[in-house]
């Protein structure tokens, strides 16, 4: 099934729209993201991916429709959501230690002296152990690599035991090994703790083994589809505005790559509106497609 219209989805959009600066960014969002899923939000620069997460957190009001998260109107269940904002990993000036930073996930960002309880400290160490940075607890963020700082950020988001974890570009600017480490942490959170995960991502490849679906922002409309329906060369080509191929290796691993046969510099997307309508139609018919993804699942 492409769209789960039941109310027990973890995140439920009903004809939702958002505007920024008086301009509609996306509209007619009507889908439900299932609990227990790992979902990517994909779309070109400025399509409104970060805006979508902020709307889910109730930080940006809807211009139309409704948005329910964990059974409540957006913004009302934030104490059960862990959020890792964009560019956290580049916050290299911070003098906070990793442990102090993770504790902020429990004590908040209020200034002043906060007595930290033994239980809170234990919780922070549990979260750091989960993301593999327990031995870095006393190091300052400024002394850690971008990959380790990203794992501090995830530990901070985890420390309050969220049901839903949202991460905005968690793999940006990380080297391959660090990307892999972050993906491994996300896989364990989903598989061992049953956490629902949502990730804004430009490059799907590292996440493919753990993704169960994607929200794709196409022509000002958000859609949700299971992963086997998203991994379609024509759809991705339209989505990214450049020709894209989906390659499946004999082992079943999938890769999304720029098409090899296209000369550089002329990779404009030229799909007409009627073709776009076809993608939507096509994907409504594709529910029987086989998911050939390999990897961690
Ligand atoms: N504070 C703001 N006021 C007005 N417009 C804004 C504001 N923030 C973002 N926008 C506009 O909203 C649109 C969506 O922005 P958003 O950051 O959600 O896109 P995105 O898909 O996350 O982009 P990127 O891939 O570049 O991070 C953009 O056109 C942007 O210019």
TrEMBL record:
Residues 11-244 form the ABC transporter domain. This is ABC transporter ATP-binding protein. One of its GO terms (molecular function) is ATP binding. InterPro entries: AAA+_ATPase, ABC_transporter-like_ATP-bd, Metal_Ion_Import_ABC. SMART domains: AAA. Keywords: ATP-binding, Nucleotide-binding, Transport.
């Amino acid at each position: 099934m492409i769209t789960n219209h039941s109310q027990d989805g973890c995140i439920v959009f009903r004809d939702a729209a958002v505007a920024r600066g008086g301009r509609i960014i996306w509209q007619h969002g009507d889908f439900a993201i299932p609990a227990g899923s790992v979902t990517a939000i994909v779309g070109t620069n400025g399509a409104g991916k970060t805006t979508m997460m902020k709307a889910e957190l109730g930080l940006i009001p809807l211009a139309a429709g409704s948005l329910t998260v964990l059974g409540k109107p957006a913004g009302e269940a934030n104490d059960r959501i862990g959020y890792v904002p964009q560019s956290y990993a580049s916050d290299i000036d911070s003098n906070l230690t990793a442990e102090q930073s993770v504790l902020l996930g429990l004590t908040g960002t209020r200034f002043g002296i906060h007595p930290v309880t033994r239980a809170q400290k234990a919780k922070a160490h549990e979260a750091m152990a989960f993301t593999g940075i327990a031995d870095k607890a006393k190091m300052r963020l400024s002394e850690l690599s971008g990959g380790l700082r990203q794992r501090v950020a995830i530990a901070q988001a985890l420390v309050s035991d969220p049901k839903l974890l949202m991460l905005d570009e968690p793999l940006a600017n990380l080297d391959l090994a660090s990307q892999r480490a972050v993906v491994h942490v996300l896989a364990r959170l989903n598989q061992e703790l049953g956490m629902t995960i949502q990730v804004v991502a430009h490059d799907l490849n590292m996440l493919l083994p753990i993704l169960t679906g994607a929200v794709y922002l196409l022509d000002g409309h958000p859609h949700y589809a299971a992963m086997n329906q998203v991994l379609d060369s024509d759809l991705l080509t339209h989505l990214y505005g450049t020709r894209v191929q989906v390659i499946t290796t004999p082992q079943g691993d999938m890769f999304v790559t720029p098409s090899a046969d296209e000369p550089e510099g002329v990779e404009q997307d030229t799909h007409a509106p009627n073709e776009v309508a076809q993608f939507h139609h096509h994907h409504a018919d594709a529910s029987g497609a086989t998911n050939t993804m390999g990897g961690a699942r």
